[in-house]
Each structure stands twice: as structure tokens, then as C-alpha cells.
From TrEMBL:
<protein>
    <submittedName>
        <fullName>Succinyl-CoA synthetase alpha subunit-related enzyme</fullName>
    </submittedName>
</protein>
<feature type="domain" description="CoA-binding">
    <location>
        <begin position="5"/>
        <end position="97"/>
    </location>
</feature>
<dbReference type="InterPro" id="IPR036291">
    <property type="entry name" value="NAD(P)-bd_dom_sf"/>
</dbReference>
<dbReference type="Pfam" id="PF13380">
    <property type="entry name" value="CoA_binding_2"/>
</dbReference>
<dbReference type="InterPro" id="IPR003781">
    <property type="entry name" value="CoA-bd"/>
</dbReference>
Length: 128
């Protein structure tokens, strides 16, 4: 977790749209405030928070270090597999997103993974 929060600068945010009422939008904005580059991943490929979006991880023309997944648990595992395929250093499943098989597959490939956690909460815990 610390590797991703401290050392990884480019975060693809799966499920990020331009809706500021959504959690993905708020977390993407926080990532930017923390100096991270965000990459929106959404079927419509919207530009969000000033960053060009892409329809899939495979479409991103530069390296992505962390894939942050805002999808239901039953569809999140495919994004963990895609993260491994593109050479990401880490996969982050947001609060409530749990897929033990995806966790096993991902970590067996040597890719760090966090499940059922939120970067905002984890950064907040460090202040104490």
C-alpha cells in the first residue's frame, strides 16, 4: 500500500466519469492534489479533471503504475488482469470491492494489490 501511495505517480482510475458527485471523481481529485497524474478509464473516454480519458487500459499510450478500480466486485477482477497485462506496479480495489481470486492471480504475478481500501482514508491514517 505504501509503495503505491508514496512511489507511484500515474494512476488509472477505472470507472471515472465527469460526475463530481461520484466517489471516483472525488478520489481522482484527491490523487491530483497529492501530485499524482490520473488517467480516466471509462467506455466513453471522457476528459476528466483536465486529463484525457481512455476506453480501456490497453488504449493508454504511456505507462500506468497503479490501476484504481471503482467497479462492482463481480466485474473488478478483469481490470486486475488487465493491469497485470499492461505492466502496472499495483492494483487498488476501492472500499467494498473484493475479489479474492483476482487478488491471488495478481499477487502471484508479482503485482502489489490492495482490496477494500480507500487512498483518502489511508493517507488520513498516516497523519497520526
Amino acid at each position: 500500500m505504501n509503495l503505491m501511495l508514496d512511489d507511484c505517480d500515474t494512476w488509472a482510475v477505472v470507472g471515472l466519469s465527469g460526475n463530481p458527485g461520484r466517489t471516483a471523481y472525488r478520489i481522482a481529485r484527491l490523487l491530483q492534489e497529492r501530485g499524482k497524474r490520473i488517467v480516466p478509464i471509462h467506455p466513453n473516454a471522457p476528459t476528466v479533471l483536465g486529463e484525457q480519458g481512455y476506453a480501456s487500459l490497453a488504449d493508454v499510450p504511456f505507462p500506468v503504475e497503479v490501476v484504481d478500480v471503482f467497479r462492482r466486485s463481480e466485474s473488478a477482477g478483469e481490470f486486475a488482469d488487465q493491469a497485470v497485462a499492461i505492466g502496472a506496479k499495483g492494483v487498488w480495489f476501492q472500499l467494498g470491492v473484493i475479489d479474492e481470486d483476482a487478488f491471488r492471480r495478481t499477487t502471484e504475478q508479482g503485482v502489489a494489490m490492495v482490496m477494500d481500501a480507500c487512498p483518502a482514508i489511508e493517507w488520513g491514517r498516516r497523519r497520526g
